[in-house]
Amino acid sequence: MSQIIPVASGKGGVGKSLLSANLAIALGQQGKRVVLVDLDLGASNLHLVIGQHPGNASLGSWFTEKTDFKDIIQPTDYQNVSFIAGDSQIPDLTSLKHVQKVKLIRNLKNIDTDYVILDLGAGTHQFILDMFLLSPQGIIVSAPAVTATLNGYLFLKNAVFRLLYTTYKRGTTGRAYLDEMKKDSATMQKLYIPQLIQGLARVDPQTTQIFINRMQQFRPRLVMNMIEDPKDADRAQRIKASCNQYLGLELEYLGLMYRDLFQDKALASQLPVVVYKPQSVLGQGIYRIADKVISTPPHQFDAAYTAEAFSGDNFQDAEEDANEDYNFKMSGIDDLVSGGTLSMGELAEMVKTQQYEITQLRKENNLLKSKLLSAAQKGFSI
Prior knowledge:
Elements: E1 3-9, H1 16-29, E2 34-39, H2 46-50, H3 59-65, E3 74-75, E4 81-84, H4 98-109, E5 115-120, H5 126-132, E6 139-142, H6 146-167, H7 173-182, H8 185-190, H9 193-203, H10 205-217, E7 221-227, H11 234-247, E8 252-258, H12 261-268, H13 273-276, H14 281-295, H15 303-308, H16 326-338, H17 344-381
Parallel strand pairs: 1-5, 1-6, 2-4, 2-5, 6-7, 7-8
Antiparallel strand pairs: 3-4
Helix pairs in contact: 1-14, 5-6, 6-10, 6-11, 6-16, 7-9, 9-10
């Protein structure tokens, strides 16, 4: 049975696709059969990282032309590595219907290979969370920057909420308890998961035990990218502590990748770093991550979860787009500041940066308005 490795990030630009592509090739070089899948639907560009021309065979053609799934698994120039392209030309792929999602999951699980690496889109769309939860050992990529750390933490918080709501089905007393709590969204988002579980255990002990078991199985792995100073690596330990305290989640540390000038040169050459310069600092970091992946025994969620999680009982409320909900984001900031992951100085710096960006956007907006007004006046004078 193949091992699915979803790779996600709370925000774009932290090296998610870089890791996905290079990890696939590093595993292939060690004799493992790998299928690399571009699931950043609507913004598919993973083929550029590996220098692969996607052609007509893609997930888009599979959904629209009803071709066989095996026909879109394309060989690459890299040993033991195959590739499934996404399709940025078909916007509907960003919001798959339930039947399409179930069909995709079934086919991904049935690929005959050692590893299936899923390069997911950034953010916390429900499709991304569901793909991430196909494995209890998904990889979350972050960077030391304050915004990257915050969004990485929020992604994991959303994933825990998604696991929560797919465990407590409609009709259970636990779900009724959650629905009642959700009426006061500000209080709900400030509750730590361990506190929430205590309340759920009182009203629905049987389902709560199932959720506790699933949380014990859920072991996402963190990769810190864009490291410039050894002190940056300390943030990984602080994120782990915050996840444990506020989410009841055991986050595992998979490795770090230093910022490397060869990254940009490799991308410009459309060659993965482990091929362009395998002895580079970045290349060696990826090889260490590949070694850890190979040496880690695969784990699966219990069969009941994988069978029931996509039954169509999806929550469509604040949790689905919780990263855009003010209270949810503020609760994430509170968690990280209280847990020492972010300092008040770093938080203040983030606010200053955002204020500067808003000021620049306002200036650009005013400039565009003046140009449009000038053009309109000239038009009327004619």
